[in-house]
TrEMBL record, chain A:
It comes from the Bacteria. Keywords: Signal. Pfam families: SBP_bac_6. It comes from Halomonas dongshanensis. Residues 1-24 form the signal peptide. The keyword DNA-binding does not apply. InterPro entries: Ferric-bd. This is Extracellular solute-binding protein.
Automatic annotation (TrEMBL), chain B:
PROSITE patterns: ABC_TRANSPORTER_1, ABC_TRANSPORTER_2. Signal peptide: none annotated. Residues 4-234 form the ABC transporter domain. SUPFAM superfamilies: MOP-like, P-loop containing nucleoside triphosphate hydrolases. GO terms for molecular function: ATP binding. It comes from Halomonas dongshanensis. InterPro entries: AAA+_ATPase (IPR003593), ABC_SmlMolc_Importer (IPR050093), ABC_transporter-like_ATP-bd (IPR003439), ABC_transporter-like_CS (IPR017871), Mo/tungstate-bd_C_term_dom (IPR008995), P-loop_NTPase (IPR027417), Transp-assoc_OB_typ2 (IPR013611). Keywords: ATP-binding, Nucleotide-binding, Transport. This is ABC transporter ATP-binding protein.
UniProtKB/TrEMBL annotation, chain C:
SUPFAM superfamilies: MetI-like. Keywords: Cell inner membrane, Cell membrane, Membrane, Transmembrane, Transmembrane helix, Transport. The chain crosses the membrane at residues 7-35, 55-82, 94-118, 138-164, 197-223, 243-262, 290-316, 351-371, 383-401, 407-423, 459-480, 516-535. It comes from Halomonas dongshanensis. Residues 59-263, 345-534 form the ABC transmembrane type-1 domain. PROSITE patterns: ABC_TM1. It comes from the Bacteria. It is found in: Cell inner membrane; Cell membrane. This is Iron ABC transporter permease.
Amino acid sequence: MRYLGYASTFTLLTIIGAATNATAGEVNLYTSNSEDAVALVLDAVAEQAPDIKINVIGGGSGSLLRRIEAEQSAPVADLFWSSGFSTLAGFSNLFTAYESPEADSLLPALQTESAPWTGTNTHVTVIMVNSDVLDGEAPQTWEALMDKRWAGQVTMADPANSSSSYAQLYGIYQLYGEEGVRNLADIVELQGSTSGVYKAVAQGEYPLGMTMEYAAQRYIHGGQDDISMIYPTDGTFLSPEGMALIKNGPNSEEAKQVYDLLLSQNLQEQLFDLTFRRPSRADLDDAIANSGLPLMEDINIIEVDETEAGEQRDYLLELWADARG
Amino acid sequence: MAELILQDIRKSYGDTEVLKGVSRRIADGTFFTLLGPSGCGKTTLLRIIAGFVSPTQGTVHFGRDDITRVLPHERGVGMVFQDYALFPDKNVFDNVAYGLRARKLSSKEIQRKVPEYLEKVGLGGLESRLPAEMSGGQRQRVALARALVIEPRVLLMDEPLSNLDASLRVQMRDVIRSLQLETRTTTIFVTHDQEEALAMSDEIAVMKNGCIDQCGAPADVYRNPKTAYVSRFVGSANLIEAEFLEHGLDGVDRYRVQDTLVAGRTMEVAANGRYLMIARPENIKIRRKDSDPVGGELEGRIASFQFQGYRTSFHVVLKSGEDLHVETVGEAETSALGRGDNVIVSIGEKCLFVPEASA
Amino acid sequence: MNRFFPWGFLSVTALVFLAIFVAYPILGVLFRSFIGENGAFSLDGFETFLTRGKYLEALMNTVILGLIVTLTCTILGVFLAFVVARYDIPFANIVLLLPLSVLIIPELISAQSWVMVFGNNGLITNLFKALGLPFPRFYGWFGLIYVMTLTYYVHVFLAALAALRGFDHSLEEAGQSLGTAPFTTYFRVVFPTILPAVLASGLIVFTLVIGNFAISIALAQRVPLLSVMTYRSFISELGGNPTMQSTLATVSILLVSGVLFLQKRYLSKRNYQMVAGRSTPRIKLRGWKALLISGGAGLIIVLSLMPALVVLMGSFTVSRGPVMYWGQFTLEHYVRIWDFNLAVIGNSLKFASLATGLGVCFATLVSYLLVKKRSVFSPVLDYLLLLPLTISGTVLGIALAQGFNSGPIVLSGGLLMVLAMMVRRLPFGVRNASSNLHNISNSIEEASVSLGVPPVRTFFNVVLPLMAPGIAAAAILTWVTTVAELSASVVIYQAGQETLPIQIFRLISSDLMARASAFGVINMFIILVPVFFGIKVMKVRLFSS
């Protein structure tokens, strides 16, 4: 008799639960960002769109994108956040364009009119320095870096494996052409992954590394005094990252709300404070200044045509492989 | 309980023929022993009856049922193994009850039968012991109870006493035989020990190289071996070359053995005319040589002897160079004989003659 | 009589399973190494391997590393075994726990913790710096050899110890009575007889080193290694042509097969069986010798167990981003896991339980078939079971991922992960499960059958209970390795299926050591509980083989 009681209560609760769920919105967020970054997003959503429940699937951006691709015929994901623009380009058929009202506040480089994604943050390529193992003065330009005296003391990620590293290579190619590529190939030692670069420099394996601003800043902010970074004065490159709305996602309306939220000033500032990745919004100079990082206008940025970069990829990688021998 | 009929059982493994056509009808309730050295096929035959081996040819019947192709767990045989094969993780009760449970007997029935059979084997009260806590003899009794409690049609025993020490073996012979007589179960007993075979069996089948050389009651096989092989396997025998001379009137033929004439029964005619004389050690008389040998007597010298209390065993080397094993019971004249003495051995009339080829 | 059912049928089923999930993927990898860019037959992969970049260097480094580590492990393992077998040292009991510690501490965590101690920001390194002393660079050869030695010496230790313990002391006394002094006797009589066992375990160490993933990727840095390159090829070739990864995987398979072949040819013949004899009495040590030897053994013990302690400490250490503040403590890393990452723990438990459950059932069945119910299929089964031994986790992962992401059978990540974990462990599982089988005489089964119980039920009633200790050992060892499995799962997993080791790997890659340590502690805990339970409560003997 007891069991009947339990069973009916259970059934009742399930029905109530299902009913409640039916009125609440859900968004399936596929994200490669760290948990604490995601936690910020969840908090923001809880505050500003309490009806929406976010289901988070975490993972490397590559594996997430492949999963979205595999699920094409019956999409599960609503929103993907985030990956480099060039990577996103390879999967653009999975996305649907959305003109967010927040898009006007973004830096022009990070607005993408023709593409079905929007920039959420950008990386800045820097030279990360470990003064503990550095012999002499740190190079202030790419040209100085490619001097033979630094042979074997500079590390970068393998451009074939890392999209940000490819962006760096392409940047050098734009600045110094084929000769620049060869000079770089002569002095640099490769890491298998993007993270390997900043780890190696932080560990003192190399005094110099080509990596991204946020990575070096993590150590500087964390209190490792021997770490510093240089913004090459002959010009450095951006590596923008963005999010995309999944085509035919199950909850596209709610997903758009989250999309907007990810571009909002408050959340972008919080994310910047946490991750040191430059926000895509143009109106957060105060926050940037407070963190100790230079303002965008104070850095010499070389404009890079992403499409060109993509088209030249095979050629450039061939050249690189040849230069490496 | 059933009559067991083997018809032309053959078994080959590849090119090797292990059983070469064994046929036998074994009456219900018989204690039937398969006796032979290792490799003679006795265990294979037993396992064919059990169902663990399929014969290459031939049939096995329990009564009227042809069970040649029946799976072993459906044959209703009881089996006792050389290593007892008790289930180590189960106690005595559960071991004995195992077959009954498989037959889905009611727990009341099981509670009745298990102690009954444990009593029969003399292990009453030991139901909760584990096999590891028991001696070899006790374990074998449990195995016996386990096999008998299911009231099998045939009881198969594969050298069950080989792992026991000598005195225990003798004791267990009695236990097994008494139980078998009491339950009147048809039993097939495999052994290489002729003493066991002689002591326990109703019938013995002496096997050699996949065939039954001779089959019969113990006394018959002992007293009337048809082949030299049987004579040596059941009891011991001296085998000496003999030359056929002539047939006798009363079935007693005459032979020349070395340089003397001996008379005795011919068990079988030799195709090539060559014979061996079988003289059992206990049938040979020995005395100090104080005269020349007459008919039926041979001359020799004592090479060594062993006094064994109630009997004495002599190793005599005949003048011809052959060895003779002689046994005397009691003291008599032989107590005075010693190593190196010249003696006369007397063959007597209990010797038999068999083809030389039957060794 | 239908003699095919049930055992023949089951043998075939097992065979088919192994053929599909072991042979087919491996053959697939071998096959694809000969397919070029455009899908046609080509030797481009091998050409690239032989001419370009660092591939050959990686191969050479791998072999050299294997040889060096095998040597150091042999020295260390034999020394420790000798000390334990011969002398009455104070911490003999702890020494016997050593194999366990290696079992419980996954390689990745071990490497990670040594980095935390000896790396540039490491505890000891900072200590030295504070004292003004230089400390050698840990990454590269030093770190690799050091950590791998401490991880793998246990194999040689166990083999040498077993051989020494089984050694009949009468032989030594015979030697001495024939005129050789004790030490010489030892050299001439004892050592040669334990040599085969030691060499055999040395070969195992060699294959483990060349297939090693976790330690290699954590510490190799400037040293190109085959296993790391294979993994990187897989990552970079994702969605593209799997030529290089297949080529590298093929090279790896050939290397290990070669080693196994050598072992079969030259070693398995010379296994000396000791007839049960008297074991050597233990000598009590005195004076400086005692100190030296006890000290040495003690040091080895401490070093073996240190990673666990370091990781434990690290998990409670304050960190700002990647920078660790040793000496300041916090619970935040664990709180974080509670808040965000319970799913990871759930994944680990889920996959490992499935893999262990399925793996142990399969291993039990196969071991029974191979020991008790041999048939015409048995040699093939034996051979197929050897295959997982020839491949490293990375290669297996690649093989399975390639084999089943398209083609006649398509399987998703979760099932594939379970399969990979299960298959890797199979040869050992079979060996564990069958350890008792040889002691179970055939007559016990025949007794049961003759009493009326059909063969399959006989297996469950009679054989299985007796196999239980071996099966328990198989279950525990399988659990331990599947919970710690990284190299295959990191290649196969799909988003949302991260296990603890994968999560740790990702955190280490981001240089978030403290957070990784917290996961590491949880990982070790999950491993430890069943082991502890098994040994203390169920009295399972894990290392009887």
